[in-house]
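Notebook, bench 3.
Goal today: get a predicted structure for HEAT repeat-containing protein 6 from Trichoplax adhaerens so we can plan the truncation constructs. The sequence was checked against the plasmid map this morning, with no discrepancies at the termini. Length recorded as 671 residues. Pasting the sequence as submitted so the record is complete.
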Amino acid sequence: MKSLVTSESEYSDNESGQVLKLKSAMSKVRLSALSCLQTIFKRCRKATSLGYWHYFIPDSTESKAPSIFTCITKDNSIKCRQGGLFLLTALFDGSKSYLTAANYKDKSNGPFISFSFTLASMLHEVHRSLIKSLQQANSNQLILQILKCLAVVVTNTPYNRLQEGFLSKIIDSILHYMYKKDHNIRVAFLACLTSVISTEGPSSEMQQLLSASVYPGYNFKPIDNAHPLSNHSPWLIKLCSNLLYESKQVTNLDDSMNSLSLQSPIAEDALQVLIVFAANYPQIVRKSLHDLKNIASDCMADGDRKITLYAVKLLEEIARIRQRNIAEADANNKEAYLLEAVNYWKYLLSDVLQNLSQPSVNSTIRAAGCDCLSMIGAEVFQELPMTLRIFCMTTLLTLCKDENPFVKASAVRCVGVFTMYPMLRDDTSFTADCVIEILNAIENSQLNVRVKAAWSLANVIDAMVVNRSQYHENFSMKLISRIYAVILKATDDNDKIKFNIMRALGNMLQFLSSNHLEKEEFQDYISKSMALLSKSVGSGMMKVRWNACSALGKMFQNTAIAVGAIKWTTSVFNTLMFAIETCKNFKVRITAAQALSSASDRRCYGDPALYASIWKSYVVCLSSSAVTTDFNEYRHLNNLKDQVAMHLNHCGHYHVLLIYFYNNQFNSFIL
């Protein structure tokens, strides 16, 4: 039998194969470990995970210890590098409120290094390492994940507490990716750019960078068939315009669904960049509003549902800036800004928003159109032609009847804005139509609709209070009774609705006349209102409590209600006094103090004993507020003291109080 002979090359092949298998196995172990850590940090509380950051993130460039960036920058496996980026994303996602503790200025000269400075140093290293990784990456998969990770990091980082320069470095390192053929990378680039522009408190660094009409090293020449942009337009608008019109051209070459689906996300994200840019940097954008209007109008004509939706939102931001221009303008410029805004709205209402109420228009676009309409503003609305004003009112009332809850909610909210316009406040027939639609909406099954309806109802009744004599004459008892009944029923609803319902209830108590109070039905409503408000002042969500206090204050202002002579007077005052003395939230105390000082007549405060108790509650309030342990309430302390002092001054001239004090030996009070 022949002996088997194995060559050295065969031994070598076996060894190299085993090495490759070992490397593959080790990379799988690392990837599994990274996946496990990612799952852990996704599930655990961010406050807990922050305590482990120092194991994964270095706090200086000199650090030699292995970190998450050892894996991201040096691992031979692209999957492991991606796993490291997934882990870093999980660490940052949702950590914004905790990262505000960072402060690079909090560096001491001694041996002690503060946590805030260490955290800031970690954030510095994360930015340096990610920018470096992006510059070195040569795989589309890796570039895509770094851009996504960078977007999350930017969203959660407090840049006002770090060194300046990181945001401009990020823009500089990502900008060339807009030329990539891979549309996923271009979408990720736009998402990252949106995060950079969305950062809170725009710094001087960003103001200077984004206000420039050119970006060094880039030439954003307008594409054929695109609207020509003015030379002074910021480079960011030129960039997004190019991406939008380029996307449109590519789509037009091939009308297949494949082409449309590839280009649509780029157009959507480019529009989102413009929307965020307009919202966060209105001072820069205000000189380019005409260019933005042309871009949005072209996108509206595209026909794609999502692109049209973002175009309407961009038009809304333009309207917001125009309204702001009018509000902030001096006497010399106001007329010019007003004329520009009127012409803008004439164009929108005659063209872009003309078919807003048509059922053929997508529901999300109809809802966005309502939000856009709410930005007209009272001054512009007054200058519009009568035909366009009527179009706005009839369109809104039609959309309030829409079966889609999102459209109905937006329309009802817009109605609440319109009823506050002085010109429409005098139109009792329009207000009556609005009230009926709002009352129907507040009984809707959808929470979002009821929330918006409660806010609008409070606004409408606020407008009714301003012209109460006119509404007392033109509104029937039946309609007023229905308003009151719906309000009382809604007080048992969700807290999100309840705090606005308390505002509506207060306005209603201020609106009622002596003719209403002669009816037994309204007397019963008021008794129920006092019970509900007393309960709401003493417990529940803080917004509900201070709105309940405010509602009682408005009731005291109505001289038609005989406060002081009615049996529930003592109960209501005791509730407010309890809030003033014991509530931990100073804003509730302040509102309760304002409510107590709202009465203009001494008779509202009842007998001398009750009046003295009110005085005593203010003294207790001053004493207890001085020893509060809640740091968040200190900012309201001076305001609370001022309110107490104003009330003491308001009622101090009633000498009956002093006599009662002396007779009952209240000499130990220290003011």
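The chain has 35 helices and no strands. Residues 29-106+113-175 form one domain.
Flagging this for group meeting.
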